[in-house]
Every structure is written in structure tokens, then in C-alpha cells.
Amino acid sequence: MKKIMRAVCLFMAFAAALFCAACGGGDYGTLTIADIENLEVGKTAAIEPVFSKEEFTEEITYSFTGDAIAIEDGTVTALEGGATVRVTATTEHHETTFKVTTAEEKVYGTFTVEDVIGLPAGSSADLQIEFTPAGTEEKISYQYSGSDIIIGDGRVTAINPNKTVEVTAKTEHYQTTFTVTTVSSVLAVHDVTAWVGYPASELPASSFGADEAYEWSGENDAIAVFDAEKRTVTAVAPGSFTLRAESSEHIEIYNITVKAVVKSGNKWDMSVNEVGIPLATSFSEQATEQVTQKWNSNGGNEETTLFIGDSFFDQRHFWTDFDTVYAGKNAICSGLSSSTTYDWEQLAKTHLKGLSPKNIVMHIGTNNFYDDGDSVEDATDGLQRLFTVLHAELPDTKIYYFAITQRTDTKYSAQVRETNDAMQEWCDARGWIEFLDTENSFSANDLRDGVHPTLEAYSAFTEALQRAGIEISDK
């Protein structure tokens, strides 16, 4: 009987175990899902469920409240920034929760790239890129068709002339478009100044080939009248504009500036010094003696070389052995101490008018700085105006212009250097005037008073003239 009871008990225990298993009370393991943090709006992340017992892996459903995220096919997408969402994951035999936090949504402003217009073939330019607000900059990629341009490292290079290319610029969060237009390669860029009431200013000689056809554009007759045949601009009114000469392959650019000249103040008064004190002899009176009378008494003619300008070429006080240096030569020395470009601009229309020298040799400009206190712009304008007037009055005369000499007083040394550089470029672009660079030809020992050369040091001028190939005729 006991054996029967034991068997019955074992049977009942086994049956109970089977009943419990059938009722779901077995060990299915656990389901865990890691939190997903700082998911950016618009970005997705895979949900990674882990079943501790792989044999009990089951289909999962997800539930949550709100619209900050979306879950589909095992991935979560952030729809709103700055949210924390608790998600419940449920299977037939498991349940767990995990958190999804979305990153604060970054504020993206605007992204622009300026058009690049008129980029010469063979040249490059920096792209003008702007992200707003600051701090939202991103890496940019560029898309465009063809091989007319190349973009890299924030620069665009024109390969072929006369093309228009539309470019799309993309970043992770931005997109914009801009245009690049290319033009013929630039042969030269010149700055040309003309003055109201003055003779026409010449454009530098063309760099186009002898047989290269080109057309002009950009004229503005309200500011200056352009004569394409003579290559001159005659000032009408203050202002500026750009002339372009363009062939199928090349372009030349002329930046035209027209200025008004106000002739007032001590610097324009030839009867007073820089502070308004009357001169014992006005520059006009001195010019009558030193220019007109010398020209007449020495038989000045179309073969004469005339030295004029400031005290460097004043035979009375500084270059006293001029007649010895140029003995037997048809040369006259007529410089006026303390004179400036303002004085000689006026004398060119009075005392030089009607003369016909073969050459004019000139040193002028130092007193524009050290007496009149000119700026570089004023001095450069004064020199260019003077030579424009001289050439208009004496069109057949070759002009040799010596650079402004540096003094031992360095107050204006930087301005002198800058003016000389500008004048060398200006003179080199014109066939009727030659710039002689003697700016630093004199040591302190060569200057008798820190300003003027000793007689022995004047050889720097005469030798420079020889190197330039000047022809000084015999008497």
C-alpha cells in the first residue's frame, strides 16, 4: 500500500510540474535594451535588444507616449529635440523599459556663398562664404558640371574664359547655389588719373598682340571722354569708372579716376614760401632769369638738353660746376631752389611754353614733402600732373625724371620710397618719360648738408643718364 501511495505522489508531482510549464511559469530569461542617448533630430539609431536566453527570442512591440520619437522596424528616429521618452518593450513572455533622450535641437541659420563674377582664366579667388549665426560652420562640398572651373580649399580657379558655371554648395544641414563667371585672362591692370581742366591723360601702351583684335567697354562720358584711337581720357567731372579692352582670350583693365584740383594755399603761390612769407624773388621772376634768359643767351634750340627742377639742379648754389661737366655740350641748367611740382606745373605753361628742347632732365618732389608736407597721394598726383602738362606743352621732348633723393632726415623716407615706386610704374608705362632710380645713390658722406650732393657725388646723376642712353648734343 505504501508503494502505491508513493507512486501516486510522484505522479501528481510530475503532473503539477507539467501543468506549471503549460501555464507559463517557466524560466524564459530576461530582455534588456540599453538606453539611447543624445539622438539628434532627424537621425536614427538601431534598438539593440538582448535576450538572456536566445532560444526564447520573441517579437517585440514598443509603446511610449508623445511625438518626440518614432519607432519602426527596430529603429528609433528623433523627431523633437530636448526630450526624454521612456519606452516599454514587450514580448509574449518579457517586458522591459529603456530611455531615449533626444539632443537639444541645434539652431541652423543661413549659409551663403557669394557669386564670383568676371574671374580671369588662369586666376583664382577666395570664395566668400558666410554661415549665420556664427558657430554653425560645417564642411562644404561643391557640385558643378564641366571642367571650366576648379574648386578646392575654399578657392575657385577659372580654367576656360567666357563661361558661366552654376555651383551647388552642400553641408550636412545646408544647401545653397552660386554662380561663377569667367572672362579672358588679364594681361594688365592699370590705374589712370585725369584731372578736370588738364590735358588728356594717356593710357599705358597696350599689351595685346600686334594682330590681336579687341573691343572697349565701360566708357563713362559724364566723368571722362575716352578716345580709343589716341588712347586718352579727358576729365569732365570727378568720379571713377573702369575701362576694359577685351579680345577673345585676353583682357586689359584701366581703373580711371578723375579728380578736381583746387589751386589755393601757399603751395600754389609762387611769391611766398611754405609758411606764407614773401620770397625775395618769386619763382616766376627766378624762372625768367634762369630759364628764359639762359635759353636765349645760350642759343637754346631743338637740340638742347634742359635740366630743371629743384635745388639739386640749381647751378647758382649747388651744381656749380655744371658748365665744366657738360663743356662743349648743348645743355642748360635752370633749376630753382625750394621749388615744387606746384611751381613747375605753372611755369610749364609760361616759361617753358614755346620752347623745344630735345630732352628735359628733372629732379623734383623732395620739397613737396619736406616743405609742403604733402601726402604720398598729393605728391604722386602733383608729379603726374606736372609731367602730363609738360608732355602736352612739349610733345616732342623726351623727359628724364630722377627719383626723389633720400635725405639724412628720415621723417619722410617711407613716403619718398612709396612715391618713387609709384612714379617708376607710371613712367615705365609711357614711352616719352624715363624714370632714373637714384633714390639711394648717395651716402651720408655724399650729401654736403644732409640734402644736396657734393660736386663729386653729382656723377651719380650723370652716369645714370649715360646708362639710360640719353643723347646730349654738342654745341
From TrEMBL:
<dbReference type="InterPro" id="IPR013830">
    <property type="entry name" value="SGNH_hydro"/>
</dbReference>
<dbReference type="InterPro" id="IPR036514">
    <property type="entry name" value="SGNH_hydro_sf"/>
</dbReference>
<keyword id="KW-0732">Signal</keyword>
<protein>
    <recommendedName>
        <fullName>SGNH hydrolase-type esterase domain-containing protein</fullName>
    </recommendedName>
</protein>
<dbReference type="Pfam" id="PF13472">
    <property type="entry name" value="Lipase_GDSL_2"/>
</dbReference>
<feature type="domain" description="SGNH hydrolase-type esterase">
    <location>
        <begin position="307"/>
        <end position="458"/>
    </location>
</feature>
<feature type="signal peptide">
    <location>
        <begin position="1"/>
        <end position="21"/>
    </location>
</feature>
